[in-house]
Write a structure and sequence with these properties.
Mean pLDDT: 78
Oligomer: single chain
Order of helices and strands: HHHHHH
Structural class: mainly alpha
Largest sheet: none
Number of domains: 1
Helix content: 55-70%
Length: 169
């Protein structure tokens, strides 16, 4: 049974992740599992009816309308979901000896000489982007055309001017 993404084919997902050279059965199995995970997450998060609506928008190279932009965002979100899953599972793939996958994946900046901290930060960044995109893709009429802005505030209060100056008498 051939595995397919929700919005993109397996070949397109592999291409966007630069993993089309993968031919090892183990490598392909891990990619298939990552695609299935993304598929389940998209259906769980959006629902069957919303996914069906987005799929009707069709893919275009240069999205310009709201529907085309929504479809492009869905495509990119699916790729990000697969990438997060692969970042979790690729080390075990390397242990299995899939040399071609190692070479191709190592060409990516995030995985070349990246430590666990770098990969964890990349996974958090992707997860944040996925969460924001899923909110947009859910089709909330109130959120259409709006921006999601988050701020990060310090726990400490900055000193007022003059508070840090020593007074000499």
């Amino acid at each position: 049974m051939a595995v397919a993404g929700v919005f993109l084919t397996k070949t397109l997902i592999q291409s966007r992740l630069r993993l089309t050279g993968t031919s090892s059965a183990d490598g392909l199995a891990i990619i298939d599992d990552a695609i299935k995970m993304a598929r389940g997450r998209l259906y769980d998060g959006l629902g069957i009816s919303r996914v069906s609506v987005i799929k009707t928008y069709g893919q275009v190279d240069n999205p310009a309308t709201l529907n085309e932009l929504t479809r492009a965002k869905a495509d990119m979100t699916e790729v990000k979901m697969v990438k997060v899953q692969l970042l979790r599972s690729m080390p075990s793939l390397f242990m299995d000896g899939a040399a071609q996958v190692r070479t191709v994946w190592n060409d990516e900046g995030i995985s070349r000489r990246a430590g666990e901290t770098d990969i964890a930060q990349e996974m958090r960044r992707l997860e944040n982007e996925i969460v924001d995109a899923m909110k947009d893709l859910a089709g909330d009429a109130d959120a259409a055309g709006t921006y999601h802005i988050e701020t990060v505030e310090s726990d400490t209060v900055a000193p007022l001017p003059g508070d840090t100056m020593a007074l000499r008498i």
